[in-house]
């Protein structure tokens, strides 16, 4: 038995040593941004840190807890000179991090007063394969939109600076974001507004097709939205693309995309709950053709 146990245990110990060594490397917080709805963005730098889109890291803040590590998806793009995470304040640990970064104070926080941070990672996810397809569907539910912040920024950077090596062309990104309430829109809408402005500057407003769905709303909200529907920008997100209400008709969405891109391999990427994963997986199978030269939907998921 020991022959079968020693090998895996040796590899496990090596992996733990490597992770311990990486977590001891110095991390510098360069910027703390407070977003609406109690969400903070930490921009950090670490020597030798290299990432890909959609990856995540483990974060420890000794000032809050000396033992707790928490996973966070990277929201920066590999092309940027820093890496960032968005932290929503929903528990004791995140509340402690919020206070340790001085976000509860009105005055400007000096950089040397910011807490020490330990980072382990990055670690890979299914979203890394997004550049393997000419056409992709990105589906984020609630806070599951965070991996696609990195993806969308990286795609735009690549398109602007190295379009010849980019498979994703000709408005082949279909982005869906599903949220229960309007508060969750606020921090991510800033990114979409920035992308929207840049696409218009380059006369390529059709590069990204995005659909935002508000799944939980009441009659008062509906009346208010209906009154302002004719305005140039959406009253919730400030985007030119209007917010839709209810849930997407996935069967229609898949059939429409299949008709637009015959004979293509289409990557479907989800970060969301298991129930939505089952739905998209079934649609990916039922809308893929048996003919190898036909359209095929390849489903990739990460659940939370």
From TrEMBL:
Residues 19-129 form the FAD-binding FR-type domain. Pfam families: FAD_binding_8, NAD_binding_6. GO terms for molecular function: metal ion binding; superoxide-generating NAD(P)H oxidase activity. One of its GO terms (cellular component) is NADPH oxidase complex. The keyword DNA-binding does not apply. It is a multi-pass membrane protein. Keywords: Cell membrane, Electron transport, FAD, Flavoprotein, Glycoprotein, Heme, Ion channel, Ion transport, Iron, Isopeptide bond, Membrane, Metal-binding, NADP, Oxidoreductase, Phosphoprotein, Transmembrane, Transmembrane helix, Transport, Ubl conjugation, Voltage-gated channel. One of its GO terms (biological process) is defense response. Its cofactor is FAD. InterPro entries: Cyt_b245_heavy_chain (IPR000778), FAD-bd_8 (IPR013112), FAD-bd_FR_type (IPR017927), Fe_red_NAD-bd_6 (IPR013121), FNR_nucleotide-bd (IPR039261), RBOH/FRE (IPR050369), Riboflavin_synthase-like_b-brl (IPR017938). It comes from the Eukaryota. It catalyses: NADPH + 2 O2 = 2 superoxide + NADP(+) + H(+). SUPFAM superfamilies: Ferredoxin reductase-like, C-terminal NADP-linked domain (SSF52343), Riboflavin synthase domain-like (SSF63380). It is found in: Cell membrane. Catalytic subunit of the phagocyte NADPH oxidase complex that mediates the transfer of electrons from cytosolic NADPH to O2 to produce the superoxide anion (O2(-)). In the activated complex, electrons are first transferred from NADPH to flavin adenine dinucleotide (FAD) and subsequently transferred via two heme molecules to molecular oxygen, producing superoxide through an outer-sphere reaction. This is NADPH oxidase 2. The gene is Cybb.
